[in-house]
Amino acid sequence: MIEILTSGLMNSVQDLGRPGFLDQGIGRGGAMDRPALRIANLLLGNDEGAAAIEIAIFPFRMKFIEPAKFSVTGANCPAMLNGNPIPPWWAQTANAGDELRLDPPSEGLRAYVAVGGGLDLPQVLGSRATDLKSVFGGLEGRALIRGDKLTTGSLFSPAGRSAERMRGDEGAPPTRSSGATRHLLPAGEKREFAGHGADPYYFRECLGGSPSGEALTLRVMPGAEFDAFTDGAREAFFSTDYEVSADNNRQGMRLEGPALALTSKLELMSHGIMPGTIQVPPSGAPVIQLAEANTCGGYPKFAHVIEPDLWKLAQAPSGATMRFLRIGRDAAVEAIRADELKLRRLNNLMPAAAVRKAG
Fold first, then answer.
1. CA distances (Å), 267 to each of 176, 228, 229, 262, 264, in order?
2. Which of 36, 144, 215, 334: CA 20 to 30 A from 309?
3. Cα separation of 120 and 149, whole Å?
């Protein structure tokens, strides 16, 4: 069990969401940065979709009521266990009474904390994810607050057994400095840390955006109404950097930049939309649908951010800039396959994978 000591309005329990209910008006929801949540779980030997904590408001503090393994992934934020620094994308063991603290990130926006066995909360429509917009799932359908206590998964579940067996590596030598410590230590310095981790730069070129950082590049495919926009709108969209406005949450993100104009007024019936869909309301300012997107809408669809780049939207704070690159279906499918291959390789390297193979 863990106890929340300090939290914020947007910190919540998330897993991989509820696919398959769009026709009933229920969005997928789940973690904004799905790869970060999956990697946090794989580092612990959990099922990769186990429930964890998504943190978007810092500082965040929690206490371990009992010994547990935990991992931290996502944004590049200072993380400390009892005041001792933890490398990015790292897993290690906490004792009863230990306190984990995460401070505001220098790069990215959302961090993920997973625990061995996952968080054990009632499932709603097959998921433990919190739907903050519709107020269900997670812990009472709301964000986490001080004093909340969360139970970890059973050690007798498949994921739990793996986590329990992993405790056998407690006596192993601590992992040496690796790519995961690159942004934690001064250049050239090496140090040993207890636990193990993944090199985040194997999975992504950066850990997210920042207001003063370089523009994030997002790959998109044209939307159904792409040809209904003017040549000038299409040229501006792909040649100009857009800035993330302050008007963004888990439902959607409004961009600031050149307005996108239609060749003529367009009236559409309401139609299905997904996370990553870029709609253009009458103002011309693009809006990107995110994890808790509406399931349908009537604005023209300019383009769609491909699945492998949705994490960049999750890790782009207000003021961050982004540019868009048009690609075709084949390139999008290849990008999805490449990302999945990296996750499979990580899974095969984890101690729990060896336990599973041995039966």
1. 60, 11, 13, 11, 10
2. 144
3. 11
pTM surpassing 0.85?
Answer: yes
Q: What is the pLDDT of residues 109-134, one digit of tens each?
A: 999 999 999 999 999 999 999 999 89
**What is the per-residue pLDDT across 60-88, written as a single tens digit (0 to 9) for each?**
999 999 999 999 999 999 999 999 999 99
Predicted local confidence at residue 352, as pLDDT: 59
| Helices and strands: H and E segment counts in the chain | 7, 21
Strand partners, 85: 80
Q: What single DSSP character describes residue 167?
A: G
Q: Given this model, what pLDDT does residue 186 score? A: 57
The DSSP secondary structure of 269-320, one letter per residue, reads --EE--TTEEE--TT---EEE-TT--SEE-S-EEEEE-GGGHHHHHT--TT-
81 residue type, one letter: L
User: For the range 245-250, what are the long-range contacts, defined as Cβ-Cβ under 8 Å and sequence gap of 24 or more?
Assistant: 245/285, 245/318, 246/318, 248/290, 248/318, 249/10, 249/290, 249/292, 250/10, 250/32, 250/132, 250/133, 250/290, 250/291, 250/292
Q: Are 92 and 163 in contact (CB under 8 A)?
A: no
